[in-house]
Description:
Layout: H1 2-18, H2 26-41, E1 45-49, H3 55-67, E2 74-79, H4 82-98, E3 106-109, H5 118-128, H6 146-154, H7 200-210, E4 213-217, H8 218-227, E5 240-244, H9 250-257, E6 260-263, H10 264-280, H11 289-314, E7 321-323, H12 330-345, H13 347-361, H14 371-397, E8 402-411, E9 414-423, H15 429-433, E10 440-446, H16 456-461, E11 474-477, H17 483-486, E12 487-491, H18 503-518, E13 524-528, H19 531-542, E14 551-553, H20 559-571, E15 577-581, E16 597-600, H21 611-621, H22 635-652, E17 663-667, H23 671-674, H24 676-683, E18 689-691
Parallel strand pairs: 1-10, 1-11, 2-4, 2-5, 3-4, 5-10, 12-17, 12-18, 13-15, 13-16, 14-15, 16-17
Antiparallel strand pairs: 6-9, 7-8, 8-9
Helix pairs in contact: 2-3, 3-4, 5-6, 8-9, 10-11, 10-14, 11-12, 12-14, 13-14, 22-24
Amino acid sequence: MLADLDLHGEYLELLKRLGDGRRERAPQFEMIRHIADAARRGAPLVVEAETGVGKTLGYTFPVLRQLREDDERILVISTSTVVLQNQLRTEVERILDAMDLGDLPVALGKGRERYVCMQSLDRLALSRGLTENFEKAADTPAALTYTQLHEAVAAGHWDGDLDSPPEGAYLPGDSGPRLSSTSLECPMRNCSTRSKPACPLRRSRKDLQEARVIIVNHDFLISHWFELGGSSVLPEPHRCALVIDEAHSLAEKICSHSSIGLSVRQVQDALEQLPKILQGLMGGDVITREHVERAQQYEKQVSQWMLPVVAWLQGLGADQQVFPDEEMGESREVFAELLLQLKRSKLLGWLQLKVIDKLRDERTDDPGERGQDDTLISLVRCEEVIGGLHSLAAGFAELTRQARSVSELSAGGASERGINCIPMTVPEAIREQIWSQLQFGPVLTSATLKSSDGFQSLVEGLHLQDDINPETDLCTFGGVFDHAAAATLEIVPMQVRAPTGRKADYMAELFQLLPGYLAGEGGRLMICNSREDLEQISAYLQGLPEWRDAVLVQNQETLDVLLRQHVERVRDGAPSVLCGLRSLAEGLDLPGDQCTRILVIRLPFESPAEPVNQCWEAHYKHHPDYDEERREWGNWSERQIPMAALRFKQICGRLLRTESDRGDICVFDMRLSDKGYGQKMLGILPPYSLKQPRRK
């Protein structure tokens, strides 16, 4: 009790020191109290905190308070996107200052593609002229040149973070020249700019080594703690307190990172190129005739071992084939033999240890020999394909829960078959590699963690069920919004009650309805469930004179550009509609007039045709409770409904961002009112005012 009083007093003092009109929020303090208790116990904690609770302060304050008593511990905060990383850093640094911990260094952990490469700037300045700039259009103000960007890094005016460019810089998108470098292209210690301006990537890695608070994105965390099993970039998990913000997306990202896709042609090309590349690198003591002969031997061996795989592919029908665990049959034996031979050959280890590492050690900084770098890049790409073949063979050979499939690929007018493998669940190795290594935590939090099955999907999906006490370690804290007064959820009455059966009729009716629902004051956010829907709807709206300039479509510009255009249009009183897939809604913050209406085109179910869903359906069919006629128990009820409910809740959460926000959510999918699972989805939403048609 005394500890809680002390904590409460510190909390009130912190609010006062933060200023900006912050006041005590009962749900926020309850969140703080639970996390402080978990910190004392060293226990994991799952916290769903609705928008308005103030999650960042809710987890940062109690964990930093604990770290204040432990000079060795490092706080690692992981969030879902790079945009949210930058937002978090600003807020965390304010909290540190208010706690008199402003001297604790804070660093961002991002992939190398997020940092400018000085050699890339050098090359661009020389090849495109010193006056070349990034002007996108004739009326764009004069932008910084490549040379000026180089000078900004050298003078310390810019840290080289491509997500936070200096004022006046317009950085090119995917279609422009690339300013970063890949791990294959980076010359590391032989970089010609090493003794000039410090390499932004190297400087960021040094900052990570010295930081006490590290803010990363989930992809970065997975790459360095899970895929690599630890690395020199991030501190070891046992030294860290881990907070996973936006934790609802972690499992999906882990599975995505573990996916593999290859075609026979890719493997054959890599094998053919390997001896030729090594032959081009011969000279000195690094690459010898023996290396080339060894590569030629490997080419013949692996090509021979691949013959049964090629024959297996040729024997398949024309349609996409999916291979669940229960239906592998003889195909498992084909890949098991390939995997056995690959392991015996030790080709992958030979390439990595005997060839690539040696070449990297011998890299030259002589500009006249830069071609060596390009050749090494080609060599490492061969190694990546061969490593992928190892993983793919294992995915088909071992009866682990994998979604295996074969699909038709088209490239350059030719058709070939690609072999794909993606985990259906998060590998159990996460317990050993991350959870069991942590002495404090993790804290997993988001505004959307509970689905129609409560916390079950999250906890079991991340293999935390053995570490979680449901009585003490699963918490929900309501927000401070009056949802019923601030927002209305309308299920739009439609003649076509399900969008999946009569697609053409549904789209025709939707096109008639949309202009009326887009009209009105404030910004609009429209979320589609498939790229096909997004393209059709955005093309239709952009064809209407009154909406041509108002429709801003995801991936037609960078997200930063889209958001800036949207905010400017709303500020000027012009109509503006942000259109995208559900990934657009991830972490999107559009307070006030920036978003007064959300349009949800379909409920966010995954396609049943996806290999993962087909494999899950096959898995459930072998369960004794499965009812094939009614399909009451299976992939649909056990996975699809809880996942779709969580995604729907996440999309709806974009509407109310502050206590003064007002608006509505319009759903163009009558299944939300007609189906039993629709009522389950409504049941996990905040208590919006509900406007729905009569159920049939």
